[in-house]
Each structure stands twice: as structure tokens, then as C-alpha cells.
Amino acid sequence: MGRTLGPVCRLCRRETVKLMLKGTRCETAKCPMESQNRNHPPGMFSWRRGRISDFGIRLREKQKVKRYYGVLEKQFRIYFKNAERAHGNTGEQLLSLLERRLDNVICKMHFAQSHRQARQLIAHGHVKVNNHKVDIPSFQVKQGDIVSIKATDASKKLVNANLEADSGLPVQPWIQVDNTKLEGLVVALPSREDVQIPVEEQLIVEFCSR
Q1: Same domain, 148 and 69
Q2: What pTM was computed for the model?
Q3: What are the start-end ranges of the H helices in 70-192?
Q4: For residues 190 and 210, what is the distance between their CA atoms, to the nearest angstrom?
């Protein structure tokens, strides 16, 4: 599994949008995006950079989506090819495939505070899908799947702490969550409106189709 080992707050500054890579910390004043340099990308002389080209605009949209969902370039290209083969709008199909990743579902259920923490929960064997252990963060959930937490004290303690930290935050309508049982039901496939970051998917399609 590929990982970003460097400081992740630089990624938000580079894309000039909060990617929620550190969970609830991104909502506090400690987030670098709240500072006076939030409109400048990282680097000593970022303010000297000129106008971004059309190629750069499309590249930034692709990088923004990759970094939000935590996928590498090779993985992203596979998702794009699958979206091209699917029926419907390619950009919307691409975002739907990324939304259906198991680590994203765990994050949207608030069982984890960030995609990175969700991948750790899955890789360490704390998550089940339809009562079977799944340790692959990229696992694609389907409509009707039941995502639950392993019935051990250690697993429940981790998830309950995250639920308490994210208490009051809404759950997306395509997932029904039972916090007492620590499980969720995928009642529908995610739509374009369920994507929580500002993204122009058509620019990504233009970049990857060139």
C-alpha cells in the first residue's frame, strides 16, 4: 500500500483547498490553511510563480482528487479506465468508484477521522464486510453491503473514540449507520452530489484522455 510519508498539510496548501487529511484537526486554527499563507502553495518563492497554464489547471484537479482519496498514479489510471468502460458520464463514474472505496466508506461513517486512519483500521483487521474480514482499503463496496467493526474491545474502543470526536457531524444519505452496533448499510451507490470536495471532473477526463 502506497503511503505519503511527508507533511500532508503541504498537500492542502498546494491544492489551495482543505483535503481533510488530518481529520478534525483540519477544522481548528492549527490548520495551515487558516493562516495568512493559505492562498500560496508551499515553497520559498511561491509568490513569484506566474499564471498557471491550461495543462496545469487540469493537472491540479487530478492531483487534488488523488490526494483526497489517497491513491497513487497507477491506481488512479486503473479507476479511470474502469470509469471509461462504465455506462454514463466518465467523470461521474470515476468519482463514484473512488467514493465506493472501503477506506472512504469507513471515513464517511465517522468510524475514522481521516482516510489515512481508515486505511490503518482496515489493514490491521478491524473491519468486516458482510461479516467477512476485509483488509484491503481499496475494496469496492456494493449496494446492500453491511460494513461493521470486529467485535473486540480494542476495535470498539478505537471506533468509539472517533465517533465521539466526530459527534454531531452528518452521515451521507447513501449510508445508514448504527452507532450502537458499530455497523453501516450501503443503501445506494454514491452520486455526484455526495462528493465533498470542490472538483471539476470534466477537467480530469480531459487530462487523462489526452
Answers
A1: no
A2: 0.81
A3: 73-85, 90-99, 102-108, 115-123, 153-165
A4: 27
Domains held by the chain: number: 2
Task: Say how far apart CA 107 and CA 140 lie, in whole Å.
Answer: 14
Specify whether 176 is located in the same domain as 120. Answer: yes
Do residue 125 and residue 73 come from a single domain? no
**Domain identity same for 32 and 92:** yes
Give the domain extent around 34: 9-42+52-98+199-208
Cα 148 to Cα 127: distance, rounded to the nearest angstrom: 6
Report yes or no on 153 lying in a domain. yes
User: Is the Cβ–Cβ distance between 92 and 84 less than 8 Å?
Assistant: no
Per-residue pLDDT of the chain in tens (210 residues, 90 and over written 9) = 456 666 665 565 665 566 665 555 555 555 655 565 555 665 555 555 667 788 888 988 898 898 888 888 999 999 999 999 999 899 999 999 999 999 999 998 989 888 888 999 999 999 999 999 999 999 999 999 999 999 899 999 989 988 887 776 788 899 999 999 999 999 999 999 988 888 899 999 999 988
